[in-house]
Amino acid sequence: MDLNPPPEENYANPRTCLFHVLFKAASLAFYILSALFINNFVIIFVVTVLLAALDFWVVKNVSGRILVGLRWWNEINDLGESVWRYESLDQESLARMNKKDAWLFWWTLYLTAVLWVLLGIFSLIRFQADYCLIVGVCLTLSVANIIGFTKCRKDAKKQLQQFASQAIASRVSSTLQSAFTVV
Amino acid sequence: MSHSDTIPLHSSSQSDIDEIENLINASVQSGPATVQPARPPSPPRIPVSSSPFLQSNLPPPSTAAAKLPPLPSSSAPPSVLPATVPAPAAQPPHGNSAGSNNYAASGFGPAPNTLTEPVWDTVKRDLSRIVSNLKLVVFPNPFREDPGKALRDWDLWGPFFFIVFLGLVLSWSASVKKSEVFAVAFALLAAGAVILTLNVLLLGGHIIFFQSLSLLGYCLFPLDVGALICMLKDNVILKIVVVCVTLAWSSWAAYPFMSSAVNPRRKALALYPVFLMYVSVGFLIIAID
């Protein structure tokens, strides 16, 4: 992953990108700045965790689909088993996805988790267990999205490979067949 | 949306957006059959196939098709995901998108212009789902089917709100150490739900992790009500009575689900910790003044 956004195009979905970043930034900013102004832990907790939860939803349901064409969720099937479903757009649409959007998506996803880890380390150093609780919840939400989307992307690549190898195999066999019939 | 942007869109993205908008407008099917929300995601405990990755131009697998009406294929451009994907959870109160009713059927989900859609639609839909889950779990329902199957459409928003609400009420009731009270209540309930679920799983029970978390969260509702009443009226006798009643109600609500999940001989082992947790919350409510 490179550090700079791909230069050749603009954001294709600026509003989605904005919302993708908005709640993450708001939650981090509120957590960091509130310690300066607000003396009430409960308010800090509730607002930060609420913003983090909203961010989780936005990333999972909106920006994941629009920016990178991936989606994951969990279902309970009729047998009562839990099934994780991954889905993505087909190959040509994936190729057409705006690179800058995708860059922003993945970078902010990872960056947020890293920042929460740092904040967690700070509060551990200061022995503030209740702030560690906030950080713990927000980190769980960020990591959840990261894991979900990474698995989804791997699944997409795997499916693509399977599809490609199937296509090649069928081409080869049909070529062989036609070769033998000619002979 | 795309027309009012001053930033020139990438040409392929513009066409994608147009396709999506056309699709939304063309689609008339409504409402998801099952709405998935979920917060959760830690890596699945039950190793499950990451199932069929639905290609948009392949026919959907039958299991998924059983759940939702398929999108009319004629209007589905290749860039659109098939509508047989259950609508992703509508969740959050802040409804950025995912508001419209034909959202499940529109394959790719909320179009970009639903970002500006009124928040109330989404809020109402989410609240109605939380309410229906709540009714299913907490209130007496003679027509309730097999309790083990309830809360198939688990969501963690209800539990989140209930736990935070309980923490807030306890914190407000407390005259000193408000922050600690909140933190302790939240941590106790969250960790308690996780541990109780693990308990059931370790006893050899068949329960889905998140379904159980969701259930235990919803069963907190009576205790929430009790805590609110105790906050408003500060009489010790009243508190004891209210707490006993709501405690019994919570335990009664949790009983069928937990007991159906384990071997009958181990029912008590699974239920006792649940009861213990609710009792400790009850004590917390009574003791705080």
From TrEMBL, chain A:
Its primary localisation, in coarse terms, equals Golgi
What is known about what this protein does? Golgi membrane protein involved in vesicular trafficking.
A GO-annotated cellular component: Golgi membrane
Instruction: Mention one GO biological process in which this protein takes part, according to its record.
Output: protein secretion
Q: Fetch the PANTHER family from UniProt.
A: GOLGI APPARATUS MEMBRANE PROTEIN TVP23
Where in the cell? Answer: Golgi apparatus membrane; Membrane
A Pfam cross-reference name: DUF846
Keyword Membrane tagged = yes
Q: What InterPro entries does the entry give?
A: TVP23-like (IPR008564)
Q: What are the UniProt keywords, alphabetically?
A: Golgi apparatus, Membrane, Transmembrane, Transmembrane helix
Report the family membership: Belongs to the TVP23 family.
Q: What is this protein called?
A: Golgi apparatus membrane protein TVP23
From the record, give the transmembrane residue ranges: 28-58, 103-125, 131-150
Top-level taxon: Eukaryota
> What is the membrane topology noted in the UniProt record heading this document?
Multi-pass membrane protein
Automatic annotation (TrEMBL), chain B:
Q: Which family would the database say this protein is a member of?
A: Belongs to the YIP1 family.
Q: What is its main location?
A: Golgi
Query: Carries keyword Transmembrane?
Result: yes
InterPro entries per record: Yip1/4-like, Yip1_dom
Q: Where does the Yip1 domain start and stop, copy by copy?
A: 150-283
Keywords assigned by UniProt? Answer: Membrane, Transmembrane, Transmembrane helix
Lipid bilayer topology: Multi-pass membrane protein
This protein's name: Protein YIP
Compartments, record wording: Golgi apparatus membrane; Membrane
Q: Which residues cross the membrane?
A: 156-174, 181-202, 208-229, 236-257, 269-288
- Give an example GO biological process: endoplasmic reticulum to Golgi vesicle-mediated transport
Region (Disordered) residue spans: 1-105
Sorted alphabetically, the Gene Ontology cellular component annotations on this record are: Golgi membrane; trans-Golgi network
| Biased composition range(s): Polar residues | 1-15
Q: Where is the composition biased (Low complexity)?
A: 63-88
Keyword Transmembrane carried by entry: yes
Q: What organism does this protein naturally occur in?
A: Linum tenue
